[in-house]
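Replying to the earlier thread about multi-chain prediction with a worked example.

Input:
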Amino acid sequence: MINTDIKTAADVSSDVRTSKFHKFLTYLRHNYILYLFLILPLAYFIIFKYVPMYGVLIAFKDYNMFDGIWRSPWNNFATFKEIFAMNEFYRAVRNTLILNFLDLIAGFPAPIILAILLSELRNQTYKKISQTILYLPHFLSWIVIGSLAIQLLSSQSGLVNALIENLGFQPINFLTEKIPWYITYTLFGVWQSAGWNAIIYLAAIAGINPELYEAATVDGAGRLRKIWHITLPCIKPTIIILLILNVGRITQIGFDRPYAMGNHLVTDVSDVISTFVYRVGLRSGRFSTATAVGFFQSVVGMIFLLIANYIADKVGEQGIW
Amino acid sequence: MDTNLKSKIFDAVISILIFIAVLACLIPMLHVAAISLSSNAAILSRKVFIWPVDLNIDAYRVVLSDRSMIGSLLFTVRLTIIHTILCMIMTILAAYPLSKRDLKGRNFFMLLIVITMFFSGGMIPDYLLIKNLNLLNNFWALVLPGLISAFNMIVLRTFFSNLPDSLEESALIDGASYLTILVRIVLPLSLPVLATLSLFYAVGRWNYFMDSLLYITDSKLFPIQLKLYQIIYNNMQLEISAAEGNIASNLLPESLKAASVMFATVPILLVYPWLQKYFISGIMIGAIKG
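Result:
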């Protein structure tokens, strides 16, 4: 009695299993093309993204080319002890934070102001032309922007110093002295990105309910007051989310910009983590050390980013991601 | 009356502020363009602002007669076109299946891709990978590593999944395969976002510099940015050492440097007006939750 019961139960479950399997086969027969599509992209991510992640192991090893990553011996965090004892490492971390902080102070408000100004323009043709021009610098490479900076600012032949000298002042070494270099770096950042980053705020402003403005007009509010009491409060959520995400990226820095804007006279302030990794890793061939620095930045950067995303998610009704 | 006047003044102030911003954007570019078209005497006596003085095209002649410069330019055009096409194919191949809500394993695949946005191996492991694949000094080292931007893929996926399901369902019932649906129905409806992403990939490839610095030492394979970097920065080092009192030799004329900058800039800017009408909407899709 019990036995047969069990048998029946087993039969039923195997029936269910085979029918599930059949269902899966039919599903595959209908959808296999979708999986074929995915093969190449997934292969790409595995080879070009995940294999380098595995390569991070060399930060924990005495890496040498002939043994490869796997057979090189572990080194008990010797690489990390080494980088934490390097003054240049702390300098690179400090510079990364300072430059990103300057970017945040100057580069974050600029697109907001620009977007508000653009949205107040009445003449649509003028607005369109201005936008086209304001977006342009975003499409220039940092090498080109660095070259523009050199041509505009060099102390011998630059336009800006010609102006300064005409006004009777001493020329300023915008590219080769520390404090002026900070200004150059930051302002060209604003120059490159303010217009482009204004797009998202323009969209937020375009989404504001026009009835709010009409009601304010009826109440006799001027345009400045409407900006202050309607536009700004309405785009506040966008501002806050973007601010959080920007703060989340404070430990991350690209390579092209500091490399293109820097030169050997300002290394003390322009050497950031990415350029430091390049110098130690590829110029001096110390792969393990450079990888450890990169790994340190990746981990810290990831933690910041995850926290920022979490907060942005909590703050906004919907996160950016 | 009073408020009307106030509003007019307000309009004027706004227009002027925008005008200043526009000028600030344009002047650096116009200045370099003007220098590239001016005589060296005029440049050295600092007469050139945003209008060429002693208009001539000598600098362009010199640059154009430089074989390596033309070679680099053509190489970069070829690189950018091939890279952009492959990027778009790969991005579409990833985005289309992942836009299907009932695709089994979809969350796993997405996780696999999203992780790469938060964590990466870094410069040195990337370099070692290229080295181990024997791709150093190889055209493909500049193409393959950047084939899919996870961000762009998510933008496209979001766009696909917002297309009405009914369009595809009727085609599926008629027995069309996913490939046919993708090519005949989905892609034609997605032209604006496809144009936007192509622009991003193309501009990104044209402007990107680091990978060529890392992977390329053969001057035949120098993209234009690396070429420009060498011209401008080698010359800057010379200028600095001249300023420090050393003897400067072989300083390049300013007009020549400016013409090189124009060569690295103008070709990609030619693409921009064609695609501009599309990319605003494209960015907005990206800003909405993916």
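Chain B has a mean pLDDT of 88.

Feel free to reuse this layout for your own posts.
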